[in-house]
Every structure is written in structure tokens, then in C-alpha cells.
Amino acid sequence: MRYFLIVFTLLFSSALAAQEVDRYVVYFRDKENNSYSLDRPEEFLSPRALARRAAQQITISPDDLPVSQAYIEAVASTGATVFYQSRWFNAILVEAEDTVIPDIKSLPMVEEVVYVAPTSDLIKGRWQVSFKNQKKTPPENQQNTLLGIPELQEAGYTGQGKIIAVFDGGFTATNRLPYFSHLFEEELLLATYDYTTATEDVFRYSAHGTKALSTIAAIDSAAFIGTAPLASFMLAVTEEVATEYMVEEYNWLFAAEWADSAGADIITSSLGYSIFDDSTMNHTYEELDGVTTVAGLAASIATQKGILVVSSAGNSGNDPWRYITTPADAINILAVGATTPQGEVASFSSVGPSADGRIKPDVVALGVQTIVADQAGGFTTGNGTSFAAPQIAGLAAAVWQAYPELTNLELREVILESGSQARNPDESAGYGVPNFSRLQSVILPVQSFPEEEELMVYPNPVSGQSHLNIKTNRISGLPVEASLFTVSGQQIAGGMLLEASQHAGILKMQLPALSAGLYFLHIYNGSSFTVHKIIKY
To answer: Which residues contact 362 (CB under 8 A, 6 or more apart)?
Structure first.
């Protein structure tokens, strides 16, 4: 087991009281009196996390700073037990008697205290949930074929070098099943953590995570291979199987920050929240805008840190709710719905759009009769968007290995544009089933001017700007032409920028109104051609 620089894992601060306690999240007003500094990010982010930010030109920001230790100690002094902290939300999870809460609220640095769950699963342990063993020989691996995984793997792309963090309710028997043995023998299982009991033992509770993981990581040469079996993995238990309370969304947040600090490239979770055991915690559809729910905002922030987040869309298509669940509503993630073997959207697959009108789900994959591992040592089939989402995570890892220069947003965009209905996305299948063969035609080869013909395009990414600047030191009698294309090849802007010129300079290209996404700028001067990737936020 490899170790990472993770500063927020356990923050036990006092002995537990004998009486029953509940769980609360304490929000702070600021990060003053902090021993950490943005000038020394290596003290709270791993080298790989820093490298991911640098590669994608993501700056270290105040929300990367850990919570002030002085504030944590102040809360602990009231008698509360502190477990986890959130850098992004500037908050901590505590267990405390209700009589302590007024003392916490009275602290000058405390902004808010939120009740998130009754009693203390963290100290009482957890229910064990078992699944009926079904050892069957699986049918042909249709799920991989639909995504173009055989072509990826034949080319040598199996996710190697990419870290996938998997969040679920348990990974029963993963540590003893033969088709996961390579994860241990090759040290591909980098870290594990159970946020529901504050231990590293995730190999219990539920086989749901085992099955989801198998669609990515399982290797059985005679029967089945996952979508990215040689990726590296981090496994987190964030779901309390026996109950449903808001604390599980916070567990998702804590796990996301753990994955971020360790340098994970992809997060995949087959979890979704809308209805809780305590109805006062329930979400409304209007809250599913990617920034209102705890899980949705956490997933949206993770994308800002350079991580590709993949989430199951939910299995509520046949229910009165019908819609996606959070964090599938998060911004710039891949929410994944389910299809049948016949290519139709599964009736149970949750639909969109998000509350703010974005296409959801984003893509779909096989979620009916999906081949999954069995905790008895064989394979069976299962249904649900839970098993569709990790397939897409594996596809993304393998594609990212093949095209390491892509940012997480670029990777997301090319996966969308490789979908079977990318030209006509809808609210049940999104952009359709992505496929590696179609994806290759989306990713254009990039050529460069010779070194003596330097060229710069800025600003990039584009935000509210109305034009692009194209700076060149070329001295040429040839005209320079630039055109902007969508990833599907549709030209949306273009024309001659500079006729026969005897001097270098900065050329301005006016832009039309652009939706967020990836674009390609073609620049041609009569003898040389170059393509630049342009991101619009």
C-alpha cells in the first residue's frame, strides 16, 4: 500500500462520551490563524496533485488551504469529537451531544452548525449487507464492444498511469477475488478508506462497489476484462448502506478531497441522493443545479481541480421523482445513464435536464445485463446506472492514457462528441453511447509552425472575451487565415485576418457567442497549417 500526503484524514480530538451523540458539520467564517500558506502547497498537496494542477494551468487557491488547526482545537475544546475536515467548504465533521452545540455556535470563528445524521456509526460500527452469490459464465462482453474498448486495449491503452478513485458502499471480497489479484500484486491499489467508520477496511458491508469496480478493473483471461484494468485505484466507502442521511454527501466531499490531495485523475461514484430517512434533508428538483447540494457542489469543485468526475445518473426513471440524483447534476462532469443490450434507454434510467437546463445524463452505457464480478469468484450480470458509470470512467482513463495532453474538460468534451447521438442530445440518453473509434476522429492531430515562425493564441481559456488575439512574428507576403470549428467539424467563425503583410503583429479574431466547451482554431498562411485547442468556460 502506497502512502500519500493527506493532511485531513482523521482528526480525533477527544475521548468519546459515554452517551449517544449525533453528527454535525461545523462551518467556519475564514481560514485565519493558519499555519499553512499558498506559497508552500507541497505541505498539504501531494506532488502528483500539484503536477495535475500545473499540467492543466490550475492555480492553487484559498479553498485548497486546510482548515485552521486553531479553529479545530477550539471546537474540540467544547467536548465535541472532530473526525474530518473539508478544505473546500472550510468545515469539519464532528460528533457531539446536543448540549454541546450551543457552545460550538457561540465560538466567534463558527459561521454555522448543520445537523447531518443521528447517532454515531463512526463509533458503533456498521451493518453488514450480503448479496446472493451467483456464479455464472458471462455472455459476450458487449459492454466493452459498445465503447470500443477492444480497439483501445489492442493499441496498448489500459488506463496505465492514471488513478481512479471509486466511491461506494463497500467492496466485499475485493481483497480475495482472483480477478482483482493484479491490483495487489502490481501495487495498483494505492489507498483505501472507510469514511463511515474511520478505518482503512473497505472490504466489507456490500458487494455493490465490488461489482462496479469489476467493470473497470477485473481481469479474467477466460471470461472478462474491465475497461481500464491496469489503472491505479483508490477505494473509498462513503455510503452507509443501512440508512440514508445527509452525512453521506459530506462523506463524498471528504473522499473527493482525499482523492484530490493524492493526485487522482478520475473519480467515479455509483451513488445518488434525493430522498433521505429524515425528510427535512430531502432535495427538491430545483436544487439540482450543480452548486446547491453538498455532493453536487463537491463534484463541481473537483472538476475545477482538474479531476474528471463520473457519476451514475440514478435509477429513478420509473419512479415519481424520475430525475437524476445528485451529484449527477454537477457541472462539467459525466453523468451516465443506462441502456439495454438492444441500445434503448433503460426504463429505470433517470432523466434530465438539470434544474438549470443542462443536458443530463451526459452519456449512456450498457446498464441492463451488464457483466459484473460475483463475490463468490465468478461473474454474473446486473442492472443499473451504477454499472454503466464505471465503464465510462475506465474508457476515460484509457483515452487519457492515449492522449495525455488533454485536460479533464477537453477529455470530457471529446467523450461527449464521440457519442452515438452527439448531434442531437436529449434528456434521456444525453449524447448517447461514446465510442473510441468515433473519438479518434474528434481529436484532431495538432501540427506546429516551425520554431522560427512563433505563434501565440490568447486568451485561452476564453471567458467573457469577444475576440481572440493571434500574435505572430512572421514576416510573410502570404495572407493569414483563421477559422474556428466545433469538435464535430462545424465552422462557426473564420475569414482572412491579415492580407499580404510586410510586418509582424497581433491579429484580432472576433468571436461569436460560444457555449462552454472545446473548440479548434485552424490557422493557415498558404504554406503552413496549425490547430489550437480553445476552451470556453
So the answer is: 333, 334, 335, 336, 412, 416, 430, 431
**Cross-strand bridge partners of residue 233:** 164, 189
Whose cell is 450498457? That residue is 366
> Is residue 61 in a domain?
yes
Domain ranges, residue 499: 455-536
Asked whether 96 and 104 are in contact (CB, 8 A), the reply is yes
- pLDDT tens-digit map of 190-241: 999 999 999 999 999 999 999 999 999 999 876 789 999 999 999 999 999 8
* Domain-embedded: residue 132: no
**CATH number of the domain that residue 172 is part of:** 3.40.50.200
Q: How far apart are CA 223 and CA 210, in angstroms?
A: 17
Beta bridge partners, 530, equal 523
CATH number of the domain that 116 lies in? 3.30.70.80
Instruction: Name residue 11's amino acid.
Output: L
Considering only residues 385 and 489, tell me which one the structure prediction assigns the higher pLDDT: 385
Comparing 7-11, 181-185, 457-461, the range with the smallest average pLDDT is: 7-11
Alpha-carbon torsion (324, 326, 332, 336), positive or negative:
negative
Report if residue 7 sits inside a domain.
no
- CATH number of the domain where residue 492 is located: 2.60.40.3080
CA atoms within 13 A on the CB side of 54: 10
Question: Is the Cβ–Cβ distance between 304 and 258 less than 8 Å?
Answer: no
State which of 442, 477, 510 marks the end of a domain. Answer: 442
pTM metric for this prediction: 0.81
Cell 449487507 sits at which residue? 129
Residues 327, 314: Cα–Cα separation, whole Å? 10
Say if residue 49 is in the same domain as residue 192: no
Of 108 and 15, more confident: 108
166-190 residue pLDDT tens: 999 999 999 999 999 999 999 999 9
Whether 72 and 208 share a structural domain: no
Q: Are residues 394 and 462 in the same domain?
A: no
Q: What's the Cα-to-Cα distance from 150 to each of 229, 232, 250, 368, 435, rounded to whole Å?
A: 12, 20, 37, 20, 11
> pLDDT band at residue 496, thresholds of 50, 70 and 90?
low
How do strand 334-339 and strand 308-312 relate by DSSP bridges?
parallel
Same domain for 172 and 120? no
Residue 28 domain flag: yes
d(CA 413, CA 517): 6
Q: Of 283-287, 374-378, 473-477, where does mean pLDDT reach its minimum? A: 473-477
Return d(Cα 276, Cα 289) in angstroms, integer: 19
Query: Where residue 128 falls among pLDDT bands split at 50, 70, 90?
Result: very low
- The count of structural domains within the chain is 3
349 and 493 fall within a common domain: no
Same domain, 475 and 431: no
Which of 172, 362, 166 has the alpha carbon at shortest distance from 270? Answer: 166
Same structural domain for residues 276 and 334? yes
Dihedral of CA 508/512/518/522: which sign? Answer: negative
pLDDT for residue 90: 97
Mean pLDDT value across residues 239-265: 96
User: Same structural domain for residues 185 and 277?
Assistant: yes
